[in-house]
Write a structure and sequence with these properties.
The chain is an alpha/beta fold. Helix content is 47%, strand content 15%. The protein is built from twelve helices and eight strands. It has helices spanning 21-39, 62-72, 91-97, 110-114, 119-122, 147-158, 195-206, 219-246, 251-270, 275-282, 288-298, 301-320, and strands at residues 11-17, 51-59, 82-87, 100-103, 137-140, 167-172, 182-187, 209-214. The chain has an eight-stranded mixed β-sheet with strand order 3-2-1-4-5-6-7-8, sandwiched between helices. Helix 8 (219-246) crosses helix 9 (251-270) and helix 8 packs across helix 12. The termini are far apart.
Length: 331
């Protein structure tokens, strides 16, 4: 892995603290995009003037280091990007060197991670060390942890002054980041983020899929719909495949057919078709589709799915408050 090096004003360093599955997916998308940009004759007009090109990932164990290096080392290209993977004991040095810090740890670990001794100094911008930004940016992808909570930790527990307070952003991508098909929702704030920061955040998360900006009051619901929703849709896909298997279709073919059918339906909706209109178009009078739909409605599938989104929203908010084992107390 590459060693620290002098950066130009157009190069940022990004540290991912707690680089698990999501962190790997995000870095994979960014590294791939940087390689594509380098092979293009010129940068796209929407590309920010300064991009993250140097990356530090921290993990808790040596086995995790090997996992991250195995997943990402092939995407690092000389003169395009650098990557170092360190144990979490190096969090402070990673934060000190970084312009952008992405928190990928478990929600209940955020306070302890940020309150570590020396973090105040690490979060202070030092232009002599090559920081290109006036303020560092902290991006949290921790479910349920709000921007005010993070800012309170930084002020009261870490002791960061108002002048040195980093720009704090909450974002919620999903596991489809791995194939660059994520739906990432970014928390808007008041006063609004500077245009340069919004542009940079949009670029980072557009490398792994689609991006939307919504107010903080909706972030737990977005976590449920976009992040947990991947599992909800996977369950429905599996159920559809089970039905095909029950009627004689081999498992592999049934799974592929269910997945492609769900992808096709999603594509039509993203192309502008309303789900209700799409359903009506397929439901010919007296046909098999309306017969199947009546069973789904009779079994309460619509209500069950909507309630699952609602329940996951409540759990996300409880996780953000630091509670554990919240599902065990819900029902």
């Amino acid at each position: 892995m590459a060693a620290p090096q002098v950066k130009s004003s157009s190069e940022l360093t990004m540290a991912v603290l707690g680089c698990g599955t999501m962190g790997i997916a995000i870095l994979s998308g960014i590294l791939s995009s940087l390689t594509s940009l380098a092979s293009s004759p010129c940068d796209p007009p929407t590309s920010p003037p300064a991009l993250p090109r140097h990356f530090i990932a921290t993990v808790r164990s040596s086995s995790s280091i090997a996992k991250v290096e195995s997943a990402l080392s092939g995407l690092v290209k000389p003169n395009v990007s650098t990557l170092r993977v360190l144990q979490s004991t190096s969090n402070l040095s990673a934060v000190a060197e970084a312009d952008i810090i992405l928190l990928g740890c478990k929600p209940y670990m955020v306070s302890g991670l940020l309150s570590a001794g020396g973090m105040k100094e690490a979060l202070t911008v030092n232009h002599k060390e090559g920081h290109a930004r006036k303020q560092k940016i902290i991006i949290s992808i921790c479910a349920g942890v709000t921007v005010p909570q993070l800012e309170q930790i930084l002020r009261e527990d870490v002791g960061v002054s108002a002048d040195d307070l980093p720009i704090v952003v909450r974002a919620m991508p999903n596991t489809a980041s791995k194939i660059r098909e994520s739906m990432t929702v970014i928390n808007t704030v008041e006063p609004p983020l500077p245009d340069s920061v919004t542009e940079l955040l949009t670029w980072i998360f557009e490398q792994i899929g689609e991006v939307a900006f919504l107010p903080p009051s909706l972030m737990d619901a977005c976590t449920s719909l976009c992040a947990s929703g991947t599992a909800f849709f996977a369950l429905m896909m599996e159920a559809a495949a089970d039905g095909g298997v029950a009627m004689g279709i081999p498992r592999a073919e049934a799974t592929k057919m269910a997945a492609q059918t769900m992808r096709g339906a999603a594509g039509l909706v993203l192309d502008g078709e309303h789900p209700a209109i799409l359903r009506e178009k397929v439901s010919t009078p007296g046909g098999c589709t309306i017969g199947g739909l009546l069973v789904l409605e009779d079994e309460g599938v619509r209500g069950a799915v909507a309630k699952a989104v609602r329940e996951a929203t409540v759990v996300a908010s409880l996780l953000g408050s630091g509670q554990k084992n919240v599902n065990g107390t819900r029902h």
